[in-house]
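hi!! sorry for the late reply, been swamped w classes. u asked for the two structures so here they r. pasted raw, havent cleaned anything up. first the sequence of the first protein and right below it the tokens
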Amino acid sequence: MIRAPVEGDFWQVDHIRPVYSGGGQCSLENLQTLCTVCHKVRTAQQAKERSQKKKSVAASKVASDISRFFFRK
């Protein structure tokens, strides 16, 4: 970015409340400007959180279904 600057490489728009948490609205109240580096870091962090949330939901579904431990006669 420093050696060969190109318009559009420095700033990006980010959802304050992530889309996966219901922040899909593109109103100005839910948008912020971040530098490209900060946006990549934030996006990676949110991807990790989203993945952990999916795993947790999947684990709770398996853990709450104890019917597979019972035998029918």
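now the second protein. again sequence first, tokens right under
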Amino acid sequence: MATRSHLLVPIKPLHAAKSRLRGAADGGRGSPRAHADLVAAVALDTMEAARQADGVQVVMVSSDPELTGIVAAAGVPVLPDVPAAGLNPALRCAESALRAQERVRRIGALHGDLPALRPAELTAALRAAGEDRAFCPDRHGTGTTLLLAAAGDALDPAFGPGSARAHARSGARRLDGPWPSVRCDVDTAADLRAARSLGLGPRTASLPAAD
């Protein structure tokens, strides 16, 4: 199927990502290796599910060498996290680089912490958005897990605290369909339990933190 949406998936360096999840991978001990393994598993499950959605090309945005090697070997394009100044600057730079490399119909941003993501639900959300600028709020209703530019327009990300309100104010249409796996991002151990109730991807499910 022809690519209709290029989804940028930003991932911080594994050692620095998801600080509120630290200890969730090893019963509270906080091993850096266990934490990195959990963050990597969540990210890889997210990207693999997104790749299976109709018309999606996933592009990871990261400068983590370990994750970059794994993802590139799987055939996923990777753009560096520059200028290493936060999520929104990274997405804007990645968008510019992607547009310079190839002709892009539509760009979106998908959080890389959706370990229960189901391809069919992401496909349904993308179809519901149509050609509009749109966003999917997280399960709490305040954050954003998916942002889509209108076809042919810039992404204009406003991630951060209260991003759902910020994206709505920017003119993005709120997507509130029955897609719980698209909304279930994982920042805390409680979030991980909520994702587990939906069904974790295979990498995350195989870790002790998912027991």
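hope this helps!! also noticed smth abt the second:
Helices lie at 32-51, 65-73, 87-101, 119-129, 163-169, 180-183, 189-198, 202-205.
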